[in-house]
Amino acid sequence: MRIYTLRGELVNNLTTDASGLARWNATNQSGGSVASGVYFVLIKGAGAKRTIEVTVQR
C-alpha cells in the first residue's frame, strides 16, 4: 500500500501483516505526523489495484 498527497507525492509505503491488514498511524516515511487533509491510498495485490481516499483530521 502506498499513500500519496493530492499532488501525487509519496507520503508512506506500508506492508500488510500475516493476516493481510495494514495500519497507518498518519505519519510520513520519516515518522513525522502528516497534516490534516485528504490522502490517496493505492492498494495493489493479487493482480488487482484499487485507490481509496483517506481523510486525516487533527
Q: How would you summarize what this structure contains?
A:
With 58 residues, the chain is mainly beta. 0% of the residues lie in helices and 43% in strands.
Polypeptide structure, described:
- By secondary structure, this protein is mostly beta strands.
- It has one domain.
- Helices cover 0% and strands 43% of the residues.
- The protein is built from no helices and four strands.
- The chain has strands spanning 2-4, 10-13, 37-45, 48-56.
- A hairpin with a 5-residue loop joins strand 1 (2-4) and strand 2 (10-13).
- The radius of gyration is 11 Å and the shape is globular.
- The two termini are 22 Å apart.
- The model has no long low-confidence stretch (mean pLDDT 95).
Number of helices: 0
What is the radius of gyration computed over CA atoms, rounded to a whole number of angstroms?
A: 11 Å
Low-confidence stretches: none
The portion of residues assigned to helices is under 10%
User: What is the domain total for the residues?
Assistant: 1
**Shape designation:** globular
Class from helix and strand fractions: mainly beta
Number of E strands: 4
